[in-house]
Design brief:
Layout lengths: L2 H15 L10 H14 L5 H9 L10
Helix pairs in contact: 1-3
């Protein structure tokens, strides 16, 4: 998977977690498992940056929002 794939996946997760009437479809445990998978398919994957993007604390390239 490439950076573009990781960003698309994170965008989907952000949308699913912000769906009205839901408490978040992806729990922190789910996100940790997904991050482990992403690292397994691409050792350059940065879990902290990816989780920060999902949480809205940084942009898709890792910079602050």
């Amino acid at each position: 998977m490439t950076k573009k794939h990781f960003i698309l996946l994170a965008d989907y997760i952000r949308q699913a977690n912000n769906f009205p009437g839901k408490d978040g479809m992806f729990t922190p445990a789910h996100l940790d498992r997904l991050a482990a998978f992403c690292y397994a398919v691409n050792p350059r994957f940065d879990q902290e940056r990816w989780l920060g993007y999902i949480a809205g604390t940084n942009g898709p390239s890792g910079g602050r929002r």
